[in-house]
Design a protein that fits this description.
- By secondary structure, this protein is of the alpha+beta class.
- It has one domain: Ubiquitin-like (UB roll), CATH 3.10.20.
- The structure holds zinc ion.
- Zinc ion binds next to loops.
Length: 76
């Protein structure tokens, strides 16, 4: 798709790192599937993936973890 930020680039499939901060917890997800603009580097993560990230983050925070770095695993 066309990039909405720079309006010139085309997005390509790739992966990115997402950092979420909730209260005193910082959760880092690596290798999150995303569409990345080949011009400005803007990342687009789809709604389902965002939801999944927030769910995972909520569980991690519940366990009282302060810093968590993990690989994002795609739910089958
Ligand atoms: Zn762009």
């Amino acid at each position: 798709m066309k990039c909405m930020i720079c309006k010139h680039g085309e997005t390509k499939k790739g992966t990115t790192t997402v950092t979420l901060e909730k209260g005193s917890s910082t959760i880092v997800f690596k290798e999150v599937p995303a569409q990345i603009c080949d011009n400005c580097g803007e990342k687009y993560i789809d709604e389902a993936t965002t939801k999944e990230l927030l769910n995972k983050a909520r569980e991690i925070v519940k366990n009282g973890v302060e810093v968590d770095i993990r690989k994002y695993e795609i739910a089958a």
